[in-house]
Here is the input.
Amino acid sequence: MLKQDTAEIALFRQSLHRFLDQEVAPHYETWEDQGILPRSLWSAMGDAGFLCVDVPEEYGGCGGDFELSALVVDVLSQRGFAALATNVSVHSDIVTPYITDLGNEKQKQYWLPKLVSGEAVGAIAMTEPGAGSDLQGIRCSAQKVEGGYSISGQKTFITNGQHADVCITVARTDPNAGARGISLFLLDKTSKGYEVGTNLEKIGQHSGDTSELFFDNVLCEEPLGELNQGFMHLMEELPRERLILSVCAMGACKGMMDLTVEYAKDRTLFGQSLAQLQNTRFKLAELDTQITVNDAFVNHAIELYKQGELTAVLASKAKLSSTELQCKVADECLQLFGGYGYMKEYPIARAFMDARVQRIYGGASEVMKEIIARGLIGR
Here is the structure.
């Protein structure tokens, strides 16, 4: 359970649920079928105050803390809106903190108010067709030219890629310096040479747009953060990314359990409810215990993050454990639904498909294990 509800937090939570009831729930299935969320939803969420809630007031935010921002994606995930939770987490908890923490005053004044209001949507472009978890293999380049830097290259699997107005792009600024030759740039979608590719079809999270992006000599005045320090900046910001994915995982686990418990109470089998069968009761007890333990660990990680003490190793543990559990809960709960769990009309089927990518993006489980192992025994 995230933040203990004060009267103010309880009101915020109620407002979010009411917004989802009115603006999302009636349309979500249609958006899933269409393969994209409407652009207008971003403005609606911004107007309602649910985007980038921990941005300082001077830049248009409400000056909340990370836990309040995490509450948003926790609720979205519990409600079964996984694609929306992912897109919002990228926008509010990955892109925006990069700008808040690394941006100069000009960059912050221009982009942060737009991200808070939903006037602008944010994306981050790390992955390339030939470089995923190993960012040292990126080929996208930034050449120093008159007026700034010229960025050329291709990116793929970019969440929010269709709607994004600003994209934090990882590019190589020194081809001979390895990890020390990478920089970050804020690319404006309206810039000449910025091209959005097709909206990629995925096995889950269908309404969340995921795209290829192409940059052909896109001009950017200056880096985000320090020149040639992009890899270090990424290492500093990745723990929050992995933490927010852990929050999404735990929210989804709790939502799937709620669905399954209700179904087990109502479903009749061999003359009694499914919930009265010992196998069902033991399975639910086992899953609920694992959810409780993992939830406590993720909340511990949140507290460490708020204190500035969340390490890359601990964030990796949270991401590894919670997302692996999410896929286990999805599989076990679907099994309890029997044949109905395989039917697309049942939310547990969508939750099963939506869960799988959580073990891949933000650092695959195997990468998390390597980071954890390095913390234990070194390289």
